[in-house]
Amino acid sequence: MRKLSYLVLFTAGLLLIASCSHRETYADQKKREREAISRYITKHNINIISEAQFEAAGFKTDTAKNQYVLFTSSGVYMQIINEGCGNKLNSGETATALCRFTERNLLTDTIQLSNNILRFSSIVDKMTVKNTSGTFTASFLKGSSLMYTAYNSASVPTGWLVPLTYVKLGRPVTATDQIAKVKLIVPHTSGQRYATQGVYPCSYELTYERGL
């Protein structure tokens, strides 16, 4: 019941943000979003690299330099912390991915949702993901996803799918194996349902592990 009450209040807060944004034009909202992203990048001393630089570096980001690659087509920024273990999801393959995440609303600069906190630590978000010739699609599993519960949608933010081209989706076998971990800055056009409606960006710290 406590969890349900928390999510009701959380949803009400998001609806309030969305209703306030209706008073602005879409151009105003996008400008506000760009400014929020710019503030976040400056505040955290993020070093932006191009896709060409990312490719030249072997599709890796230097965490010591706090590098994020900007994908210009989507506006998503990504830092790979751990590439992960096992193998990447092959073309034509469908798998279950287990995710832990922390979502921060960049307009308010506050943590909005997370299954890394004690209240929701028992929930590991599950999504079914498919690779079709390099294009990834995915859906959250009802009853096994905090994102599904909070946003009442099985749709996985397209920003969450961007890293799957570059990280491995495996399960640790040895003590030194690490699951894939990334940081993302996701504009509303690649975000979850309420971000899309309210025109606000989110940052994520996100892990991926292959399910059984």
TrEMBL record:
Residues of the signal peptide: 1-23
Pfam families reported for this sequence: DUF4827
Lineage: Bacteria, Pseudomonadati, Bacteroidota, Bacteroidia, Bacteroidales
A GO term for molecular function: peptidyl-prolyl cis-trans isomerase activity
Source organism (scientific name): Hoylesella oralis ATCC 33269
UniProt-recorded name of the protein: DUF4827 domain-containing protein
InterPro entries on file: DUF4827, PPIase_dom_sf
Keywords per UniProt: Signal
